[in-house]
Amino acid sequence: MNQDAWNFIFIGGSFALYILIAIRSRAATTKEYYVASGGVSPLANGMATAADWMSAATFISMAGIIAASGYDASRFLMGWTGGFVLLTTLIVPYLRKFNKFTVTDFLGDRFYSNFARAVGVICAVFICMTYIMGQMRGVGLVFSRLFDIEIWLGVLIGASIVFFYAGIGGMKGITYTQVAQYCVMVFAYTIPAVFISILLTGNPVPQLGLIGDFTKDGVDPVPLLSKLNTLNQELGFAKYTDGSFGKLDMFCITTALMCGTAGLPHVIVRFFTVKSVKAVRSSACWTLLFIAVVYLTAPAIGAFARTNLISEIHNCQYNQAPAWFKNWENRGLIAWVDKNDDGVMQHRSGPPFKGKPVYTLQREEQGPRQVTNPLTDNANEVFYERDILVMANPEMAGLPMWVIALVMAGCVAAALSTAAGLLLVLSTSISHDLMKKIVSPNMSDTHEVLWARAASFFFLCVAAWFGINPPAEFVAKTVAFAFGLAASSFFPTILMGIFSKRINREGAIAGMIAGVGLTAGYIVYFQFLAGHKEYWFGISPEGIGCFGMILNFAVATAVSAITPAPPKEIVDMVENIRNPNDAGSATH
After folding, report:
1. 471-485 b/e with 16+ CB inside 10 Å = b?
2. Rounded to whole angstroms, how far apart are CA atoms 230 and 7?
3. 89 and 196 share a domain?
4. What are the phi and psi torsion angles at 370 (to 5°)?
5. Cα separation values, 400 from 310, 324, 435, Å
């Protein structure tokens, strides 16, 4: 069989499974739509949460960033995993005790204000839209490569599938679909890593191969990381094991990612689907175990991809370029411009083009694709999007076609699983938190679910547009902004709502507005408006969420100190929440 046949088998089979699960798990009530009736087992919820959390940014982009930047990418590993520990110890057991459907429900009731609820809705929409457009871009990249179609068409195909099983099945359908998607993802991530580890180091354990010796092609054994450092330095890059971020910026980015993870509404709501607080803690342990399988493999995949990329491209005659290079070049995701007219590809330090390359579709026989705006002040002739490295890695290593197809299925599963969870939060923010709780309290369950599905369709259309016209350079960078927004809005407000009896509605509202305002304004200014990169104190847009969080804490505390204390029933509520034992089923 050829590669297309294998692709259709793996992708088609996985899609058929997802759709079958969605049909069999169709949500009939709001309780099924929002929290899967609160009866999901800890093991199943652990797998579903892992799938929900391991987005396209984790599966596609994280290893790509590790491959491209080495040590600097550790901020994602430390931030995302550390944040999950914060989430499971400081937040979800207490929110589960609260017995509601959404994070915004907690904000509205804890701060006894529909205005606080409305601010929460705005923050949830802002965070989830920033996040979901990265997932749509990831789906488009995979489908583009799989079926030799344009990225925009791949985005539309992925969006249609997500709408079907998320809009129809709600949380009930999403949960069991994500269990299947986790199984696809974990095999798609680990099996190629084992193959490549054996090829490069002779060790079948990727984590040991990363710290082992490079032995490919019978060369004298040399530590893989040392070889990678040498290759990088020879081409003008920094050492793979060195970092280029300033210490303050690195700290702020890691903190923003950590606290943002703990404040992501689509991850928090997953723990509302289990039966009790005890089940929450058990589910969290399973989730950490399932996540660790992928996160402990990512550094090895990144190092292997970097080694293969340099070996395959640098000093290679273009007319003898490997087939995988031409495949990805046809999709505009990798390119070469011959600056010195020698027909040899030079992959060195420095930007090959001004901005993102713009291609013409014609090229001379065995000649380079024509690229606009070539630079001539550095020797680098190669451009590639980092998001493709995980997908191209099996091809670079010459792995069997079924392994390549498996990786593609995993990439699609990663993007679709998180997109579905985000879409549910977006739809419930409108149907439950806005329409049911604020606009029309007497709305029936049937109308509430209809509003949820209508909101799903609207937000998915917006997300698809951003997936086709991405506002950032690569998927993980867009997603990092979502974590910054979550860190500056939900995380501090939820934490203060649980552990402080004195924080009142005025303080919570002011804190959220100040925190998310600073973070969003800084991101928009430096990412889209400013013509320079002279960041304040050297803090990049990805790290500003740390300062937004601090501002939220400060403003909320100060405003609460000069305004009336919360009513006694709210203080009693906080006392009850902080004793997370014997929680019952979620209520409307």
Report:
1. ebebbbbbbbbbbbb
2. 36
3. yes
4. -75, 135
5. 21, 13, 52
CB 27 within 8 A of CB 172: yes
Give the position of tokens 């090959």.
352
**How crowded is the C-beta side of 210, counted as CA atoms within 13 Å?**
18
Contact assessment for residue 556 and residue 511, using Cβ atoms and an 8 Å cutoff: yes
Query: Which tops the pLDDT comparison, 376 or 492?
Result: 492
Tokens of 151: 């990225």
**Three-state SS at 509:** helix
Instruction: Give pLDDT tens digits for 496-505.
Output: 999 999 999 9
- 316 is a domain residue: no
Decide: pTM greater than 0.85. Answer: no
Number of domains into which the chain is organized: 2
Together in a domain, 257 and 341: no
Strand partners, 236: none
User: What is residue 532's predicted lDDT score, i.e. its pLDDT?
Assistant: 62
Q: Do 369 and 261 belong together in one domain?
A: no
The torsion angles phi and psi of 371, rounded to 5 degrees, stand at -130, 135
Compute the distance between CA of residue 10 and CA of residue 410 in angstroms, rounded to an integer.
9
Q: What is the total residue count of the chain?
A: 588
Q: Are residues 132 and 242 in the same domain?
A: yes
Write the single-letter amino acid at 201. T
R_g of the chain computed on alpha carbons: 24
Mark 433-455 as b/e (b = at least 16 C-beta within 10 Å).
bbbbbeeeeebeeeebbebbbeb
Of the candidates 510, 511, 503, the residue with the CA atom closest to the CA atom of residue 577? 503
Q: How far apart are CA 372 and CA 367, in angstroms?
A: 15
Q: Rounded CA gap, 390 and 397, in Å?
A: 11
3-class state of residue 384 by DSSP? strand
Instruction: Give CA–CA dist 366/228, Å, rounded.
Output: 31
Q: Are 16 and 153 in the same domain? A: yes
Pairing of strands 334-336, 316-317: unpaired
Same domain flag for 483 and 521: yes
Q: How far apart are CA 299 and CA 305, in angstroms?
A: 10
Rounded alpha-carbon distances, angstroms, from residue 567 to 31, 98, 107, 118, 499: 30, 18, 15, 20, 16
Q: Are residues 380 and 502 in the same domain?
A: no
Alpha-carbon distance 335 to 338, whole Å?
Answer: 10
| Whether residues 69 and 143 fall in one domain | yes
Distance CA 563, CA 127 (A): 29
Identify the domain containing residue 387 by its residue range.
327-396
Side-chain half-sphere CA neighbours of 416 within 13 A: 38
Percent of the chain with pLDDT over 90: 13
pLDDT one-digit tens code per residue, 429-476: 888 888 888 888 888 878 888 888 888 889 888 888 887 877 555 454
Task: Answer whether 325's CB lies under 8 Å from 235's CB.
Answer: no
Q: Which of residues 335, 366, 396 is at a domain's end?
A: 396
